[in-house]
Amino acid sequence: MEVHAGNDLEMGPGNQEGLGSDIKEETISEDSGQLGHRHRFIKKDGRRNSSGKRYQSNTASDVLETITNIQPKESGGGVGETREAIVYRLSEDMLSKLPPDYVPHEVKARLIKMGHLNSMNIFLRQEIDRMQRVISILRSSLCDLKLAIEGTIIMSENLRDALDNMYDARIPQLWKRVSWDSSTLGFWFTELLERNAQFSTWIFEGRPNVFWMTGFFNPQGFLTAMRQEVTRAHKGWALDTVTIHNDVLRQTKEEITTPPAEGVYIYGLYMDGASWDRRNGKLTESTPKVLFMQLPVLHIFAINSTAPKDPKLYVCPIYKKPKRTDLTFITVVYLRTLLSPDHWILRGVALLCDIK
C-alpha cells in the first residue's frame, strides 16, 4: 500500500512543530547510540529536507482548525437540518454499529481455557478491559446526548462538547481521554471497530496468526508479553538477558497462514522517509510522490543475548503516530541496508503504526 503526495515536494520525516531554529533534543531510553544519533538528525537535518511540505501541511491544518472553531455554534434557523438533528442522526448510526459489551464471565472462561497465566493472555485481558471502558463510555454518552437533544435531560458540559465536536467531525474530549487520537471522528470510530474485531477474534476464536499492533492501547506491553512468553518457554533464560530481534518477511498479511514457531508476526506498519525492496529485503530510496509505503509482515522474536547488534543494520524507530515524540515511541527494529545507516539517519527514516 502506498500513500501519495499531491505535489512535487518530497515528504520527509521532519518534526511537525513548525520551522523554528531552537529545537529541543528528545531522549529515548534505548540501548543504542545509533538511535540517539538518529534522533538528533531527525530534529535538525531531517527537518531541512522536508520543511516545505511540513510547513504547508501544518499551516493548512491550522487554517482549517481556525475556520472550524469560529463557526457559529447556535442552531440554524434555515431550511436545512439543524446541528442537533444532524448529531442526533449520527448518534443513532454510531449506536447501531457499536459492538456489544464484553460479558465478564464469558471472557474469564475463555481466558482460563486459553491459559489465564500466559503473559500474552494477561495482556489480552488488559486490552479488553480498556476497550470495554471505551465502549461503555461511548454508549452512555451517545444515549445521553440523544436524550439531551430531545430535551429529556439537561445538556451537560460533556454533552455540549460531544455535540459540538461530532458536528465538526472531531472526537469529543471525553472519548479521546479514554481512547486514542485520530484526525477525524470517522477514522476514530472505524479504528474502534477494527480494534474491537481483533480483540473479539482473539478471545473467542483463538490467537491470530498475525497481529495488527496499531490496534493495541499498549503496544510496548504487547512486546514485553511476547518476551516473557519466549523466556518462560526456555529453561534457564532470564528476562534481563532476552532481547528483541526481527526479520522482515516477503509475505503480506493475507499470505500468512500459520503463526511463527516463536515470537509474533506484525502487519500494518508504514515506512516514512524510505521504501522497502521486498525482493532483496533491504531499505531503498523513497518512490517520488509516495509519502508512506506499507512494510510487509514483520516477524518480531526474542533471543537470549545482549551482544551488540550488527552496526551495518539501520536502527529504525517505530512510532504510534506521524508526530514523533517520546510519548508515541514504541521500540526499534533493525533493518538491512546496502547503504550506510547514516544515510537513513539523515533522512529520518522511521516506521509508523498510523498515518492518519
UniProtKB/TrEMBL annotation:
<feature type="region of interest" description="Disordered">
    <location>
        <begin position="1"/>
        <end position="60"/>
    </location>
</feature>
<dbReference type="Pfam" id="PF18199">
    <property type="entry name" value="Dynein_C"/>
</dbReference>
<protein>
    <submittedName>
        <fullName>Dynein heavy chain 8, axonemal</fullName>
    </submittedName>
</protein>
<dbReference type="GO" id="GO:0051959">
    <property type="term" value="F:dynein light intermediate chain binding"/>
</dbReference>
<dbReference type="InterPro" id="IPR043160">
    <property type="entry name" value="Dynein_C_barrel"/>
</dbReference>
<dbReference type="GO" id="GO:0007018">
    <property type="term" value="P:microtubule-based movement"/>
</dbReference>
<dbReference type="InterPro" id="IPR026983">
    <property type="entry name" value="DHC"/>
</dbReference>
<dbReference type="GO" id="GO:0030286">
    <property type="term" value="C:dynein complex"/>
</dbReference>
<feature type="domain" description="Dynein heavy chain C-terminal">
    <location>
        <begin position="58"/>
        <end position="353"/>
    </location>
</feature>
<dbReference type="InterPro" id="IPR041228">
    <property type="entry name" value="Dynein_C"/>
</dbReference>
<dbReference type="GO" id="GO:0045505">
    <property type="term" value="F:dynein intermediate chain binding"/>
</dbReference>
